[in-house]
Every structure is written in structure tokens, then in C-alpha cells.
Amino acid sequence: EKHISIQRHLADLEKLADLKEGEFTVAVSQNTDLLVTDEKKPCPLCPEDKFRACYSHKLHRHLQNLHWKVSVEFEGYRMCICHLPCRQVKPNVVGDQTFSKMGAHYHCIICSATITRRTDMIGHINRHVNKGETESRFITVPPPKSSHEVLKESATDVKVLPNYSTPQKTDSYFNPKMKLNRQLIFCALAVLAEERKPIECLDAFGATGIMGLQWAKHLRSSVKVTINDCNENSVTMIQENCQLNKMKVKLNTKEEDNDEAMGDGEENTDTIEVTKMDANVIMHLRSFDFIHLDPFGTSVNYLDSAFRNVRNLGIVSLTSTDISSLYAKAQHVALRHYGCNIVRTEYYKELAARIVVAAVTRAAARCNKGIEVLFAVALEHFVLVVVRVLRGPSPADDSAKKIRYLIHCQWCEERIFQKEGNMVEENPYQQLPCDCHGSMPGKTAVVLGPLWSGSLFNTGFLRRMLFEAVQYGLDEAQPLLKTLVCEAECTTFKHFSTHSPCDENKQEECGVYIKTPNTSAESHLVHGKRKSEEVIRNAAKRQKSENSAEHPAFYYNIHRHSIKGMNMPKLNKFLNYLSEAGYRVSRTHFDPMGVRTNAPLAQFKTVLMKYSTPTYTGGQAEGPLHLPEGVQVGEQVQAAADGKAEDAEFLEDDKSGVLATLFTNEYPTHCAA
Question: Which residues form the C2H2-type domain (predicted)?
Fold first, then answer.
């Protein structure tokens, strides 16, 4: 039986003290004297030496104020504070006498433990709930519904614990904010499934199994899904979620292989393999066509084993959530994990993506494999990199050559990759397009890296991903994929058009389908050594064509380089102005106000200055800044900054007062003089 301190209602507690239900309330309403008719009664939760027997009205207040109001509630039951000799406190020795005192405590309704403090009791109950232990051994009534919560995403149901959003306190971590990440990975897998069928794919860190369940539910017989996790509770939850979605389960562990069929399997006959082992172990033991890594934090510890057995032309995707190190908030951690020196820059998100790709490239090269970056995404919560694996020492060498250092100017934030070669240059500052080193004192630039210097996007692959997103109704991924396609082509939305997926005859252009003369099932499987020379030639041609039209590296933030005292043009209009000036230009997903262009920073600022308007004009329409003939913007700014004699004459001719206003804000001392 449960302890007497655990009750549902205050009336139940009063019954233990032989108080009739509502006796005190009725007596007060009738103005009767309880002292005359009532007998003294003891408290059922206090010893006689602590609380002596008293009349009903006093006992009622005692039970209500000292026991019921400080109770801990759990699923309709109240665990009241108890003063009985259930828990003995350490005896106090004073001289030759020993005093043993009985302490107040609570009785746990689940495990019958005794806890002294109320806050500790609440934390104790919460730990039971987090572990899924909600059934009391004392309650004889039917237990309430399970504390598991069922969430739905992309027509897939998953059962999670109440604290599913805290990865350090639960075995079934599920982050709803990563829905976009899961949709992007699904689109990449769907594109690979169109190339060859069936493909073996691995979700190395299953947690709830949501990602692998979505793969199997939508792609069905095109994929053979394996969900792995090293935690026993997570494996159990993955099996329950497979049963919830009517999937068959094949359970494999290290020691033994057991086949278990869970669910009736009438609606879906696909089988999901669930394994319980370390991610490095399963990737060393077996080969896969598609591997996704999503550990808690960095994924560099699993890259070597991921590239060890991945099949040729397969795909490896990894999600890194250690954004504090990648986004240059913890630079020493980035140096420790990735071997990169970084600082906080305006393009820090693309810098993070290139850091991860560089680590992936080095891991693949150690296994004599090269990579082809399909896309890289860096958002608020994660960095996602998806690469295609190219076997052989030649692709490995070509990929390793694209890892270079970056020279970054800390004054104007101009940047450029170091030239190839091992020879030491006498003046590395000459590689930067800016002249900050000559005009500013001291050292003005830092060397960052090593970083990936190649392209971050494959246009053909992204277009096919967009087609798959439309086909499967993934609404959240479609806007991002459109932005990625425009960013890969370095064009604006104005010139963007979505084409239907290319046919097999255009495989060299898109690099998606593999056409072989034999139409049998075996001829479409390009696994391991079963690869034709035609496929390798097509991959080489595809890489060559893509490298010739690479997008410009990095981007500029328009707010970062705005002119003080001037109103900038709208971002889309500014993109048109840069395009009219003859430069390639596009927006970027890394920064909503970022501009990816091949224009140098000086030309970028010149165009921005030309089409900016003074602040004080307010309602003046956007347009170019009209200046006296024969005078350039850069010359005016430099002249005003230097304070030469001809500046005064020029400012006298400044009828519009634009530059005077600008220089008053920038150089108040010179203007006052």
C-alpha cells in the first residue's frame, strides 16, 4: 500500500484523523462550539511529541497549512510532508548525551524513497519522468496515459520523451528546429536514389529514428535504411517508432543478430535495420552508398571511418552543431578540432562551411578518395555539408590542392586566397587588392585557414533537389533551394528558372543519371569496383565544366560597407546596379543582407556610393549621386580626408552640400577648422 502521506484530496487526509468530511465547515456555519462537543485528536503525520492532540478546528488548520499546502503534486496525487519516524537523521552528540531527531521528509510515490526538501523532491520526480518511469508501485487504479509524446513531421510519427529538446538530459533527442536540415538531406538522398536503385543508407546517430523513418516511408523500395545508435534506450525507442509507423524491424547488435518483426506490415512491407553499436564500428564493418553523420557537436571524430568504406560516387552528409567554434566564438576550439586559425569576420558563416569542407577533404584524402562538394549550408543552428565521394588517388590529389590559406585585411575586410605554390613571398600584402598596408600603420592582415577554396555548390544537383522538394511537397526547403541555385549560378531571382529534371542523355551536364548499355539491374549498380570508364570520364567532364563557372568566393555585407550620412539603395536595386556595371552578382543564404559578387571591394564601395542618397533629403528618390564634372567619388573622399588646399575650393563648389554633410559627420575636426 502507498504511504499515508500520499493522498488525492484534503478530505482523504482528514479521514485519517477521524475528521468527518466538512465537519469543521458545517460547525462554523451553524455557529456551534466544537470545544464542547468535540474530542481532541492527534495528527496522523506528526508524532505526539511534535504535535499534541487538539480539537478538530485546530487540527483542520494544521493539516491544511502545514501538510497539504507544502505537498508535491504528481498525476492527481499529493505527496504531503511527513514528520513520522520513517527517516532517521544523524544523531547529535552533545557531551555524553545523544539526541536523535526525526526530520521532516516526503515519500516518493514512484520509488518509495524519502526526500527531505521539497525542491529536491520535485527534481526527483522530474528525473523519473525524464526516464519514462511514471507508473507508481503503490497505485492500484489503472495508470494514466504514458508520458511519451507523439510528434508528427512529414507524415511520420515519432514517440519522444517530454524533455526531448535537451540533448544532455534525454536519450531521445528531437529538435523541431532541424526540420529544414532533415528536408535537405532527404532531397539529397532522393536525388541519389534516382541515380541507382536500391541504395544502402545509414543514419549513424538515430536518436528517435525520425530521419531514417522518413527515408523508408517516402522512398520505400529505393532505399535500404539502417538506423544506428549506441544507446540502448534510443534503440528501444527507434523500434517503437518503427512499430508506430508500421515498419518491419531487423535488429542487429554486436554480439548476436536477431530478427524481430514488429508491426503488422500490411500497409508497408519495407524493413528497417536497427543496430546498436558505435558509429565508427558500423562504418568500418560495412559499406554504404549514403551516410549521414549528426553527432552532438563536431563530427571530425567520425570522418575517417565514414570515408573508409563508402562506395564510389556515394554521398556523405554531415551536420555540425558546434557553431561556437565554427562561428569564431571559441577560436581555440576550432584550432583544436579543425586545425584552423580563424577570426570573426563579416563572412563568418561561409568561413565555417569552408572549414568543415576542408576537414572532410583531408579525411577523404587519407583514404585515397576525393570529394565533389554538392552543397554547403550554414544557418543559425547548424552547418550542413554534403559531398560526393570520388575514389582514386588522382581525385584525392585534386581535392587536396584546393585547401589553401586565406589572407584577410582587418581594416577593410578585403580577402583573397593565397596563390598556389610553396615559395615564400617577400611581401604577402601585395596579393590583397586593397592598399591598407601602405596607408595604415602596423600589420593590417591575418592569415586564416587552411580552408576549402573550391566551389561550395553543384548547380545540377541543386536543381534536381529542388525538383524532388516540389515532388514530395517539402515547402520549407523550396525557398532555400531556390536561393542556393541562384547563388551557385551567381545570378538574381530575376533570371532564375526551374527546369524539369534532365533526361539520361544529358548526364554529362547534370551529372545525376548513369547511362549504361546494359539495361539489367546489375548494370545500374555502380558499387566498389563495378564501375565503367564511361562513368569516370563523365564525372571528370562534369567537374571540369563546373569548375569553369565557379561562383565567386565569399560575399560582402551591404550594411557593413555603407557610407555614414547616406541612405543606401534597396538591396535588389543595388544588385541590378552591380550587374549593369558588368559584374556577376547574387544574394546568399549565408547572410540576408549579403551580396556575392566578383567585384573587388573598392568597386563595390564605388557603386554603393554612387547610388546612395544623402540622409537629410529624406524623400529624394534613389539614384546616382550627381557630382561636378571631372571629379570622381574616390578623389573627393581622399581629398577631404587629407585636408589639402584644393579641398576648400572643391567644397565651395559643392552646391548641393552633399559632401559637406558627409565630411562633417566623418571629419568634424577638419570641418570646424
Answer: 108-128
